[in-house]
Amino acid sequence: YLSACGCGKKTVVTMSKEFCKGLLQSEELYKYILETSVYPRQPEALKELRNITCNHPEAVMATAPDAGQLMGMLLNLLNAKKTIEVGVFTGYSLLLTALTIPEDGKKANEGGFDFAFVDADKENYWNYHERLMRLIKVGGIVVYDNTLWGGTVAKPETSTSEWRRGGRKAILELNQKLSADQRVQISHAVLGDGITICRRLY
Question: CA distances (Å), 93 to each of 10, 72, 87, 175, in order?
């Protein structure tokens, strides 16, 4: 399968499919999407960082390039200047954000941020959400990564590796809470390991 960083290399370590960032069933289809729509438009700095990240032992933790491409579009649509990143790993999503926002982008106070990306400890996602609802302006967007947790959210707990069960439980709870949260409009996108896009309504 393709690694999270989308480098197109098969891992040399024996791992199950649940670790694959791309949830598409076809490796060929995912490769087609990356090579046709993502890589040709990717800035050189992002390509270099992606290639470096592919050699990292925890490369599966990186933001998937197709999810990153959507984030870039969201940043442009918002004309985002004030952003927050919670969890950056090797910095792919942070670099993408820095390359996308205008040069006059800057820090902001409560209620003044345009965009946030969260890819950190899953058990605290809801705590981050509550805080971000105060930091993000009305009409702003929060994107949560890994919200399909390798597809395990739709499988019995017994079929999930022991070490992934805590994250699975946290993601299931987050997904239910986001679905019921009237403060946000949501869209659950099957990109990378699943991303949930939340637009603050009030």
Answer: 22, 9, 9, 22
Task: List Cα–Cα distances, 58 to 44, 62, 67, 129, 153, in angstroms.
Answer: 22, 8, 18, 25, 22
pLDDT in tens, 189-198: 999 899 999 9
1 vs 199: CA distance, rounded Å: 32
Cα distance between residue 17 and residue 26, in whole Å: 12
117 strand-pairing partners: 85, 143
Q: Distance between CA 142 and CA 133 in Å, rounded?
A: 9
Element housing 196 (H / E): strand 195-200
In the numeric block, the tokens 């941020």 are attached to 113
**What tokens were used for 124?**
């605290």
* pLDDT tens digit sequence for 92-148: 676 777 778 787 776 678 899 999 999 999 999 999 999 999 999 999 999 999 999
Tell me the pTM.
Answer: 0.77
Tokens of 70: 């959507």
- Strand ranges of the sheet holding 195-200, from the earlier edge strand across to the other edge: 83-86, 113-118, 136-145, 195-200, 184-189
